[in-house]
Design a protein that fits this description.
44% helix, 6-stranded mixed beta sheet, single chain, 3-stranded mixed beta sheet, alpha+beta
């Protein structure tokens, strides 16, 4: 699972546990709506050998070629709408200071950020701040040859089809709907199903599954499920199939990467990924995943493909994403130490022994420097990744866990002195914990979440990995978070030299509870429930332990000077409650207890106190901060000799947000506007 979405933007800036040196690098790009764009520094790229530089370059090109796949996965009209808006943005000759144009620019920037017309996190459709009349007139004023018109199609016909999607709040209202009791497939705008109901989809894949298969593929992962002529069938994403035009470009650059692979193991990984893109066979994908997990010697690594299922309301179909990275050799010593002790952590976890792995296999962990991000990891990204998602592969062959060091570094540097802690942290005591230990324990929580949390535990024999259905992602993220929270205070962490003080964990405990109970509410509009899986996870944990510890006042919501704050009175008891909840969450996962998962999520993870929500939003607004952050990528330029051989790869950071997005739309527009 791409498990750890950063909460750092919702906590105050804290000093690194190491000495902070002055950094002249400009981490901030721009801010609009609820978004801030940052730059990240690719530390150490210039020092890589030429072969590894070329590998990063080729893999980065392969990453960027898949951009349009995610846009189309997120909604069938996204590519058309993006092109309409971009054409107006670049070619409009009217008054660009007009309110309608200014609001169209903001809307377009949000579409770029979210890879579509729905919020990247909340999944609600954006409300345009410009009128249909303005957009129609603007489109009429530009060169029609630049618009996404099909042969013989008029602008009038296109607007009639697309304008309701943009302007009518009832049409395609949510990219991913998770509302209990509704048909989640029919009410979600994501483009993973066509004319298919939730029951039809569940029945279709249910018939494919063999409960006795110990090595099941992840059915439906790389296809759209459609009904044509009354028959339900899959349209597979592969070369020669759906999204084939983009996939062929990805293959082209993967072939180049194969030629500069660091070793035979890495070469085999790339070859198998190419084969999967060519045949679309999920068995091939499993073979690739096993090879990838076992390649531990390569410094440069990558993910490229259909990976995470958060965008599918049924949690099966995977969005396209890519990240290219290389190992941070020094910082990786921390994660290697954690993973080397994986069996100890598994053995001593507070869960029923029936649900523990007798032998933890193949847990590898490292801190990486991201070189490029794409698809569902761009511009907003995770700060930690644990893959593959196949339960049986994780059990038999292990998994890879990474913490993305240069992203957390960029978040911290950009947030310095933003006033968040002063506004939301209860007292100087908690502020001191956060100042001294916040960065360190935040990183350690990510490490434990990714390195051990996702890799811990086991399903009981015969349990369907998809048994929890729409609640599966939330339960899985809660399981991994709880594993990390439970172990942060453990004496083992001090014994291993990972924490400098017995009280260091209190920084992350306070930060997590404050975020889960209060501050993450800045991410959703007043009146809305919590929808996104990571947010649901954090609220579920925080509210459950808050409620169970209420009688003893383990944690409280208290008033001070007319404002609400989180106050933790008993950190040790809080740890005990985290352990109790971990035991229950693991039981739900291991037994595939759908009803218990539904009750847990619906009771604790979804509903919001409207008065508290209103207060948090008002206090946050005064800080002029953006609750969501994302990144502009660096630019890699290949330098060649007279014969065309690459002699160096240079990196630069000066490209602006709109500049990058327009360049990507020009250079990596590999798909038709309609992908049927």
């Amino acid at each position: 699972m791409t498990g750890m979405i950063s909460t750092m933007m919702l906590t105050g800036c804290v000093q690194n546990h190491q000495e902070v040196k002055e950094d002249a690098f400009d981490y901030t790009v721009e801010q609009f709506a609820d978004l801030q764009l940052l730059r990240y520094k690719v530390h150490g790229f210039e020092e890589l050998p030429l072969q590894q530089k070329k590998l990063v370059y080729y893999l980065s090109e392969a990453a960027l070629q898949g951009r349009d796949i995610l846009f189309d996965q997120n909604g069938k009209y996204n590519l058309i709408i993006r092109k309409l808006l971009e054409t107006v943005y670049t070619d409009y000759q009217g008054d660009r200071s007009d309110e309608n144009f200014v609001n169209l620019e903001t809307y377009l920037k949000r579409v770029w950020f979210s890879n579509g017309i729905h919020h990247h996190y909340a999944a609600d459709k954006f409300v345009p701040g410009f009128t249909p009349e303005f957009l129609k007139a603007a489109l009429e004023s530009v060169d029609a040859n630049k618009l996404p018109l099909e042969e013989g199609e008029t602008l009038e016909e296109l607007c009639k089809e697309v304008f309701p999607v943009i302007f009518d709040p009832k049409i395609m209202a949510k990219r991913v709907n998770q509302a209990d009791g509704e048909d989640l497939v029919l009410t979600s705008a994501s483009n993973y199903y066509d004319d298919v109901t939730q029951k039809e989809a569940e029945d279709f894949y249910g018939k494919m599954k063999n409960p006795n298969d110990t090595m099941p593929v992840m059915f439906g992962m790389n296809s759209r499920l459609v009904k044509e002529d009354g028959k339900i069938q899959e349209k597979v994403w592969k070369s020669g199939g759906l999204y084939g035009q983009a996939i062929d470009k990805i293959i082209y650059w993967l072939e180049k990467a194969k030629g500069v692979a660091e070793n035979d193991a890495q070469k085999a990984v790339i070859e198998k990924m190419i084969q999967f893109y060519q045949d679309g066979d999920l068995k091939t994908f499993d073979e690739y995943a096993i090879l990838w997990v076992k390649d531990l010697d390569s410094r440069v690594d990558f993910v490229n493909g259909f990976t995470e299922s958060y965008g599918d309301p049924l949690g099966m179909k995977a969005s396209w994403e890519s990240i290219v990275n290389f190992k941070d050799l020094e910082t990786t010593k921390r994660t290697e130490l954690i993973s080397a002790n994986a069996q100890w952590f598994e053995d001593h976890s507070p869960v029923d022994k029936r649900f523990k792995k007798e032998e933890v296999k193949g847990v590898s962990a490292k801190v990486i420097t991201a070189a490029i991000i794409a698809g569902d990891l761009y511009p907003a990204t995770a700060i930690g990744i644990n893959l593959p998602n196949s339960n049986w592969i994780r059990s038999v062959h292990g998994s890879k866990s990474v913490t993305i060091g240069n992203f957390t570094d960029a978040y911290n540097k950009a947030a310095h002195g933003n006033g968040f802690s002063d506004e939301f942290v209860y007292s100087e005591v908690e502020k001191a914990y956060l100042e001294k230990y916040g960065d360190l324990t935040g990183d350690l929580h990510t490490d434990l979440h990714e390195c051990l949390g996702h890799g811990s535990g086991q399903l009981l024999p015969g349990v369907d990995p998809d048994a929890l259905k729409a609640y599966g992602s939330t339960i899985e993220e809660a399981r991994a978070d709880l594993f990390g929270l439970y172990y942060l205070p453990d004496a083992k962490m001090r014994e291993l030299g990972l924490t400098p003080h017995d009280d260091a964990y209190k920084a992350e405990y306070y930060s997590f509870m404050m975020n889960g109970l209060m501050t993450q509410l800045v991410r959703i509009e007043l009146g809305n429930n919590v929808e996104e899986a990571h947010m649901r996870n954090r609220q579920l944990i925080a509210k459950w332990v808050f409620e169970k510890g209420a009688e003893e006042k383990v944690a409280e919501l208290v008033q001070k000077e007319g404002k609400t704050y989180v106050k933790i009175n008993d950190y040790e008891k809080l740890r005990d409650l985290f352990g109790q909840l971990l035991n229950e969450i693991q039981r739900i996962k291991s037994e595939g207890d759908f009803e218990a998962a539904r009750q847990m999520v619906e009771t604790y993870a979804v509903k919001v106190d409207p008065e508290l929500h209103k207060e948090v939003l008002a206090r946050y607004e005064k800080l002029n901060l953006a609750p969501y952050k994302g990144f502009v990528n660096p630019v890699y330029t290949a330098k060649t000799d007279a014969e065309g051989n690459i002699v160096d790869v240079e990196i630069s950071y000066g490209e602006g947000y709109a500049e990058q997005m327009l360049r990507y739309s020009k250079d990596y527009a590999n798909l038709p506007y309609r992908n049927e």
